[in-house]
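Supplementary material to the annual report.
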Amino acid sequence: MATSGNGQVWALEQAADLLISCRYVIAMTGAGVSVESGIPPFRGPGGLWTKHGEPPLDGYQRFLADPQGYWQQRLTAPSEIVQALAQAQPNAGHYALVELERVGILRYLITQNIDNLHRAAGHQRVAEIHGNSQLLRCIGCSRRFVKEAIAIALEALPPRCPACAGIIKSDTVHFGEPIPQDVLEICVRETREADCMLVAGTSAVVYPAASFPQMIQEQGGDIIEVNLDDTPLTPLADCSVRGRFGEILPTLVELVRTKLTA
Ligand SMILES: [Zn+2]
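Predicted assembly:
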């Protein structure tokens, strides 16, 4: 059931109090946060996969089998998502999370989104579980590179790592590809440390993301949920706020600031 009116005000108050009183707050975001910045979702009505079909479940294995073909397609026929990513801008919710980091409350942000919008907004401590579409990664040594740092020529594909000569792919994690170990280690480390997690724009049912709120709960920590609708996480949440990320987060952070200066 959606919270509204007085219930909503109460939920926001409770969320602000938790953010202030908890010792180590982290956040996790998902697709709902990006949709408000114009990035189409993958699933559901209007979703990219609904329109174009789900990508192959062995996408990473296909890449490994033919990295040259992958790069040729990427360079000559950019997909709808690539075009949407190029135009997307952070929304007010992204900036509110940056503010929460600046005031020292939000210690780390785990995101399932690949769109770079948290970093573009100025967020410093971000773990991107599914990679970052604006970066390239060497599958040999796992170094990340900005695109400009790698020579990419149609006649010499796939591009190679300047450090180890390994094959370069997008940092975005493909189906069938393991989550990069370094990112996973950060997520586990930060979640172990945390006593509160703010979860926004995700139902947190896809692993490994789903495991982090579960860890928080097992540790006796608090979960604050911000989402348009109820999700499978709602029964576990100590506090659920219903609404748009780009409206709720600025309101919540303003409330925190007011309480801190009162
Ligand atoms: Zn390398």
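The CA atoms of residues 25 and 106 lie 5 Å apart.
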